[in-house]
Each structure stands twice: as structure tokens, then as C-alpha cells.
Amino acid sequence: MSLRTGLVVLLALVSGGSAATLVKSYINITPGTAAPQVETAPVVVALVDISRGSSITAEQVKVRDVPKAMVAPGTLTRVEDAVDRAVFIPLMKDEPVVDGKLAPKGAGRGMAALVPEGKRAFTINMPSVVSSVAGFTLPGNKVDVLLTIEGKRGSVTTTLLEKLEILAVDQRIDAPADNHVDPNQLRSVTLLVTPSEAAKLGLAQTKGVLQLSLRSLKDEQPANASPARLAELEGLEEEVAPPPVVVAEAPKPLPPPPPPPPKYVSIYRGGNSVQTFAISGSPAWAGAPGPRADAAGFKEMADADAGDPGAVFDPGRGATRN
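Given the sequence above, the corresponding C-alpha cells read:
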């Protein structure tokens, strides 16, 4: 090996050793030293998906250690704090169980567990309520209630109540997986209201038609909507309505002809008139139609004069003497 080659090899060894020493000093790795410890805290997590309104059992949750910095306020740390409590908001698998998502202990399960103290669950039984938002009315949504009634100036629609939470649609207290319900199968919706709001809904349901207006969960602003009246809509229709079609009236029927003048028959005795009768038609023997009963009076008079052999009854002249 030449002197030049030996110097190059020696320089390479020195440079490599220096680089290794610098790296070791930088990362400060010493044999037997453990990685720094991360502080953890126990939290209760769900082992399975837990639906809304369900009561938590001991088999559905467990305690797991997680970094303390990741623990949210209100997260439960003991299994016994979660068992036998109903779920307000559905829980997903491996999700930490937060106290605010559960009903108080002893509140039961199902619909009653979802009703807070001082509130009421009120059910509206009519298909038009849920069909008004095309089947997108789901448990947990917020809605406004519209009322349509017949007023003195015609129909009027107004916002009756605002920002009401839907507890259930039909018998479902949790939303379906596809977040859509067939509107043809809906028959009722249950709302979370105060006692006074329940009284208003009860009266409105019997006096008018109720409908729902779906609103954003983040929208907390009042509606401030004026009532809509039918007269206003009719005014819009008049602006674009075609001219009316004039229909000729049918001719009035002619009055019936006046009745014929009455006919009279007189009975004479000795040239003097004895009695005069008014008849409705000509006598039957005259060839003209007429009730036979009209001549009954003449016969009676003739019979009364039967004792006078000189009396003769003449249809043309009446009763005369020979």
C-alpha cells in the first residue's frame, strides 16, 4: 500500500468515528435507559354500539387507560357509574362514556328516561306532520310547529312553537342507519315540551292542522315570521288570473196561462131564476170534459121540484115549466 492510500484510509476512519460520537451525543442514548413515561388516567369506554334510550349493562363497558391529556371533562372513570343508566345520545364502540350523554340513575329506560325533570313528552298523531318534511324528521332533530286554522278573514298559518326536540318518530327513539324514514309509514311524532307548550299543542291539534318545519341544530334564532293569510295568497292569484268567463243565463220559463172563466148554470122556475151554480167545466152531456160531480147540485134541485110536475130541467136553459 502506498503512503497516499494509507493516509486516505486513516482519514476515513477518523471521520467515521467522529460522526458516530457526535450522533451518540446528540440522541443521548445510553444502555439501560427507558423511554419517558406518559401520564395516563382510567376512563370508561363502550365495548359495543349502544343505541339511544338503552340502559347500559356491565358487559357493554370497560375501563381503559388513556393519556390524561386526552380525557374530556365529565368522562366517567368507574364502570359502576355507567351501569343501569339510559343513553341520551347514541354511543359508538370504543367511545369514552361522558356523564352528559346519560340519564340520571333511577330514571329508568326507554322514553321516560329521555324526558328531563320539568319537561313533558307530547305525541302528535297525524301523518301530515311528518310528511311535511318528506321523511327527514328523525329523533334528536329540532323543529318548529306550524298551525293552520280558519279565522274570521279566512285561513291563516302561524308559527305556534319553536326549537322543539323530537324524542321519537312513531315508536323509534333512535335514528335509522340511513338517517331516513319512509313518510308513508309514519303516523306520529313525539316532541319534548314544557307543560304549557303541551297544553297549546293539545288545543291546536283539535282546532286546526299542525305541520313541522325542520331547522338546523345550530340555529337558535327566533323565527320572527308573520302569520300567512289566505287573503294575501288570493291577492297574488288575482294579479295573474285570466278574465272571468261570462255565461249567458238561461231564459226564464213563461208563466202558466190564466184559468178559463167560470161557467154558470141557472135553474129557473116560472120564468124566475131560482139558483145559479158555478161549474169548473162543461157538463158531461155537452160533449166537453168536466167532472160529473158538478151536475150533482142540479139533480138535487130537480129532485126538490119533483113535487111540481110542471118543472122541467133543460141543460141549455135550466129548469122551466111546460
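The first helix runs from residue 3 to 27. Try to locate this feature in the C-alpha cell string yourself.
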